[in-house]
Amino acid sequence: MEPVPLQDFVRALDPETLPRVLRVCSGVYFEGSIYEISGNECCLSTGDLIKVTQVRLQKVVCENPRTSQTMELPCNFQGYFTPLNTPQSYETLEELVSATTQSSKQLPTCFMSTHRIVTEGRVVTEDQLLMLEAVVMHLGIRCARCVLGLEGQQVILHLPLSQKGPFRKWEPSAPRTLLQVLQDPALKDLVLTCPTLPWHSLILRPQYEIQAIMHMRRTIVKIPSTLEVDVEDVTASSQHVHFIKPLLLSEVLARQGPFPLSTEILEVPERRPIFLSPWLGSLQKGQRLCIYGLASPPWRVLASSKGRKVPRHFLVSGAYQGKLRRRPREFPTAYDLLGAFQPGQPLRVVATKDCEGEREENPEFTSLAVGDRLEVLGPGQAHGAQGNDMDVLVCQRLSDQAGEDEEEECEEETESPERVLLPLHFPGSFVEEMSDSRRYSLADLTAQFSLPCEVKVVAKDSSHPTDPLTSFLGLRLEEKITEPFLVVSLDSEPGMCFEIPPRWLDLTVVEARGQPDWPEGSLPMATVEELTDTFYYRLRKLPACEIQAPPPRPPKSQGLSKQRRHSTQEGGVKSSQVLGLQQHALLPKPKVKTLPAFTKDGSSTYSKIPAHRKGHRPAKPQRQDPDDDEHDYEEILEHFQKTI
């Protein structure tokens, strides 16, 4: 087959003969363009093979041959078309007359000229219909007597038989639909007429979309038929040609089989590594892989090591067979306690440092000492100093652990439990109180307890000879992530399998020849993968890892600076009174006077707290004089130094 323009090939193509293989004989490339424009291929190289699988009519451009104006017709246009001339053309009027008289049809006959005719002071355009009635002698010249219809009037014209055309006969035929006209090769590029369109004559120029398969293209290639390339049909000589179709691992995952699947890597995404595993360096172009299918179970746990200056991060598979033991959790603030609280599950903690309660905000905000035991009851609200409501954590103070005598225990049982209110920004330090020595599997632990959770690996995974989790003093299981992974092995090392997440490591592969066999027994699996810091923090941004909102900002403290600022703003104070107040502040307070006031103030403030409880620190006295400073003895020392 000789090379033809792509548009001509498509218009003459019979859809029943698809698919057809074409070779590009003259390529086209738009300078500065990308390879696709609006999803259509715009660049083809000479020698490219195209396997046409489908041709779809995209639109029809209607052209006025007289004015060259164009308009688009929808593919479902309902008008009817009638051809104004036949495919047979005649160079002169004499040829037209001779062909008519020799045929079974006699004069008169209708015809049209493809060019303008100027005669007897008139111009006959190419879209006007003429009726040839007879051949007569006019002014001594053999002429064709023709009738031209103009605005309801008939004009007689005498055209010499030597008049050059080309001319085309017009034969009345049955009206045809748009698709019928386009499917008839005999009507290609003929002048048509349609009563529903504003033009008397028109030419239809359809535009098609070619759907084809090309080498190294993952998806169907869409090529417009108007692309200016010449193609050659090489279907007969290309039966042995196999078009290579690349696949993404995400596409392999979506189609779900058949497995196992032998593949070869074509491209590795240029991104920062996500795992610190030795097999990651083997994922290079040309490496053959065997994909065994979807990993089960589909969930994993994000874990971080504890007890080291630089933590290490891991992604632990749900198939991990090691044994874990729970460790007490640590909570730096009351807000963290609220995040770990689960209704119906008791949460008991012990304070690990002394913390003063913010009585300026609310008298019920209790101070804590090292060793105080609390049971978390849940969230609540309390009134602040400015009259607004504050979110608090409601706790219940527990008795000391075993070691007290039975008399004290009986006395405490008769007392009502003391309620403790802690603001969510309370900067305490707590450790969970627990006595659980059971050994859990990862599946049981995540099913029975909420995350995050502190654990210690007490027995390594037998299927993982180099289980790194046993070397840490503790692990923090942070989040449970559900994401499909593919079980993959290297063709050179089929004895060890690993799991690849197509979402974050989407390799481009191509199916290789040959069907791999399933290994005997269960697949040896690497159930623990160490993560890079970059990928770890990327995982923490996932919606599954988003925990509660950030803790509330603590209220501004109303310390001495605010009190002094308030005292300096008071007007009308005499200098002698100010001097007397300063001298009074520099003098130490007698202990005899201070202790009774402290006892009275402390008993009224902490009425619910037992007076002599082991390990509890008495609260600070509430000063009545706003001008008193908290560092009286430091100011006395400074005063004596200045005096000396």
UniProtKB/TrEMBL annotation:
Cellular component GO terms held in the UniProt record: cytoplasm; nucleus
Matches recorded under InterPro entries: CABIT_dom, THEMIS
Compositional bias ranges of the Basic residues kind: 610-620
Stretches for region Disordered: 546-578, 590-644
Classification via Pfam families: CABIT
Segment forming the signal sequence: none
Superkingdom field: Eukaryota
Residue ranges of domain CABIT in the record: 18-238, 281-515
Biological processes annotated in GO: T cell receptor signaling pathway
Ranges of Basic and acidic residues composition bias in the record: 634-644
UniProt similarity note: Belongs to the themis family.
Protein name according to UniProt: Thymocyte selection associated family member 2
